[in-house]
């Protein structure tokens, strides 16, 4: 039974890290898109989620680590960009 709890904990921690982040920007093989990054930064997050644009690398930044990277990628793709680059 102990292994089941450990596996569940590892899964939950990895799921959280995949959803939340400190930095994202709209970017694909053709370059980065600062205007769309600003737009998606405004759409991503609410409530206690603090985010701002631009960061030092023209990214959307969240000191509270609450950018949903999956939603950010979808936002960039909705505007025709291949994806987003997100990092901590």
TrEMBL record:
Among InterPro entries, the record links this protein to:
DUF5948
One Pfam family recorded for the sequence: DUF5948
Asked if the Swiss-Prot or TrEMBL record annotates the protein with the keyword Signal, the reply is: yes
Instruction: List UniProt keywords, sorted A-Z.
Output: Signal
Q: Which residues form the signal peptide?
A: 1-20
What superkingdom does the record give? Answer: Eukaryota
Q: What is this protein called?
A: Uncharacterized protein
Q: Which organism is it from?
A: Botryobasidium botryosum (strain FD-172 SS1)
């Amino acid at each position: 039974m102990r292994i089941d709890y450990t596996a569940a904990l590892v899964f939950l921690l990895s799921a959280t890290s995949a959803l939340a982040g400190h930095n994202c920007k709209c970017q694909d093989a053709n370059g980065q898109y600062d205007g769309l990054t600003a737009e998606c930064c405004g759409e991503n997050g609410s409530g206690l989620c603090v985010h701002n644009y631009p960061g030092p690398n023209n990214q959307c930044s969240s000191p509270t680590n609450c950018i949903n990277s999956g939603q950010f990628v979808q936002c960039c793709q909705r505007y025709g960009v291949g994806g987003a680059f997100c990092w901590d």
